[in-house]
Specification:
This protein is mainly alpha-helical. It is built from nine helices and two strands, in the order ααααββααααα.
């Protein structure tokens, strides 16, 4: 008899909406959106966590018609994608900084396929991206996300997510922070690169036999690597702060 009760329309629709909420999350968040995680595995994960969280899901309060069901599915999918987008903006701080650092070091043409996003990325950006991924695991971001979804089930009924007026302001703020903090991370190397250019320029004026390509660029790269190593812990700390700030903004969805 309980099995028959489970297959009521309200329960089935609630299960589908919860599945799309998890699906949008696994598609877009920095950890779960990794290219090594196939679409089949993401679907299986969304289905598994839907089964796990279904017993604690509040009763569905939705007038089930075809238009409302379609809108509710889009709402749940959009909700998961927005969570991922906010976290991606915070995570892209280090990849943006890595692109600037690569340019200043002369590595802008040296790029490789980033396993996180599947796109071509400068080497320094790829290195910082992989290290940042380890930081996300150290922060237990995957557990944070599951806890956030659990909290959202009470605060945001399934199919009831609505865009707020200040949401655009949050995205503009997050995008601005990505550029500002990225420049902060890359600034020590930018400053030293400019200083090295000034010194090399003075040497070339006083010593015409000074070969910038043979001597100057290797020195510049060595200094940049030394600064990158010295500021690495601060870079990861800034990434942690950006992720935590992103979660504070996500609380405004409730």
């Amino acid at each position: 008899m309980e099995l028959v009760e489970f297959f009521k329309a309200q329960n089935i629709v609630g299960f589908i909406l919860l599945f799309f909420r998890f699906g949008g999350l696994f598609i877009s968040t920095p950890i779960f959106s990794h290219t090594s995680i196939t679409a089949t595995l993401k679907t299986a994960m969304a289905f598994f966590f839907t089964i796990v969280f279904y017993p604690v899901m509040p009763p569905l309060e939705l007038n089930i018609t075809l238009p409302t069901l379609f809108i509710a599915i889009l709402s749940e999918l959009f909700f998961g994608l927005l969570i991922g987008l906010m976290l991606q903006l915070a995570y892209n701080v280090i990849t943006f900084a890595g692109g600037i650092i690569s340019y200043m070091m002369g590595f802008s043409m040296a790029s490789a396929i980033d396993p996180q996003s599947g796109v071509s990325m400068p080497i320094v950006s790829q290195f910082l991206s992989l290290m940042g991924l380890m930081v996300l695991f150290e922060l237990d971001l995957h557990h944070w996300l599951l806890y956030y979804i659990d909290s959202s089930l009470v605060a945001i009924p399934l199919g009831g997510f609505l865009l707020k007026d200040q949401l655009l302001e949050y995205f503009l703020q997050s995008t601005t922070n990505m550029f500002v903090v990225g420049l902060m991370i890359a600034f020590p190397i930018i400053a030293l690169s400019w200083l090295a250019d000034i010194i090399f320029g003075m040497l070339m004026k006083t010593m015409p036999q000074f070969n910038l390509l043979v001597i100057g660029f290797p020195i510049k790269i060595m200094v940049s690597f030394a600064v990158l190593i010295a500021t690495f812990s601060a870079t990861m700390l800034l990434l942690k702060l950006q992720i935590k700030d992103a979660f504070n903004i996500l609380e405004s969805f409730f």
